[in-house]
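Quiz preparation item.
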């Protein structure tokens, strides 16, 4: 048996280690360019990395993602498919890119079918369900959108965008309590972005939008309640309206809008918590309401509504 040449072994190890180090440096540079929105330069770096290792699924995925963000969808699909063919740890990420690319190509049904396939092959993941929910949301299929968003939140309760879309769905449906709950929770997760302003609009619309003061009769307040029968949130909607109407009462004179909003929100969550008996263990009665009720009981709600 021939003995291995220690010099050649050292040189091979040194070359391999150096090549891997160079590859990672190129990938890191590519990611920085990607994050800065310079997708052309990020792709250049990844191409250099592929010269070192043409079969790196990590680099191929990063290429597909940069092409996706650069709206070069055919290229994004091509590189994502190469990763999927490798069937390794980057497969899930490649499914995300391919599904998004198909949707942007107008092939939304194919996109949803792909995410269903991804769930079967790689197991449930909140981003699979979120992406399907978002696809259905854009197609105005609120029922399927909500179904998938709830699956996403079941897997990842702090996925901010799923809460955000859920608030929009119920705002469009006129479900005041549900829209407000989802929007408030979203604000806890994402308090200072452009989307936060949209969530604040939803909260305002579903808090005071159904209470109007008669201009001809200043002492008359009109309250518009949901006409839905057997609405489990009916009493909460009524309480929310009465609390909003109470802002004009003499006892509240001199209080700022923030003070009134904080006090009324705390009272609102106390009422919801007391109503939460023998209710279904869904996201409303089993997640949002217990969360906010506990905060209201602990007197920590002002820290949330002031964000």
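Solution:
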């Amino acid at each position: 048996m021939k003995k291995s040449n220690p010099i050649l072994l050292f040189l091979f190890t040194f070359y391999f280690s150096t090549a891997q180090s160079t590859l990672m440096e190129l990938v890191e540079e590519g990611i920085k360019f990607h994050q800065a929105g310079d997708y052309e330069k990020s792709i250049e770096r990844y191409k250099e990395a592929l010269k070192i290792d043409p079969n790196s699924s990590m680099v191929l995925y990063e290429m597909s993602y940069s092409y996706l963000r650069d709206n070069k969808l055919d290229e994004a699909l091509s590189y994502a498919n190469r990763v999927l063919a490798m069937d390794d740890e980057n497969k899930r990420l490649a499914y995300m890119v391919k599904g998004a690319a198909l949707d942007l190509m107008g092939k939304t049904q194919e996109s949803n079918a792909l995410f269903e396939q991804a769930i079967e092959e790689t197991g449930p993941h909140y981003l699979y369900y979120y992406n399907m929910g978002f696809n259905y949301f854009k197609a105005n299929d609120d029922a399927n959108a909500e179904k998938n968003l709830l699956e996403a939140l079941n897997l990842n309760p702090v996925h901010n965008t799923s809460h955000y879309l859920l608030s929009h769905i119920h705002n469009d449906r006129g479900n005041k309590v549900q829209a407000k709950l989802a929007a408030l929770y979203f604000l806890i997760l994402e308090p200072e972005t452009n989307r936060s302003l949209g969530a604040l609009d939803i909260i305002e619309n579903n808090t005071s939008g159904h209470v109007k003061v008669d201009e001809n009769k200043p002492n008359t307040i009109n309250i518009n309640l949901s006409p839905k029968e057997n609405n489990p949130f009916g009493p909460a909607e009524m309480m929310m309206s009465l609390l909003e109407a109470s802002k004009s009462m003499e006892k509240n004179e001199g209080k700022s809008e923030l003070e009134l909003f904080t006090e009324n929100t705390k009272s609102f969550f106390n009422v919801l918590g007391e109503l939460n008996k023998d209710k279904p263990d869904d996201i409303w009665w089993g997640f949002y309401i217990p969360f906010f009720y506990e905060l209201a009981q602990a007197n920590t709600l002002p820290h949330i509504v002031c964000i």
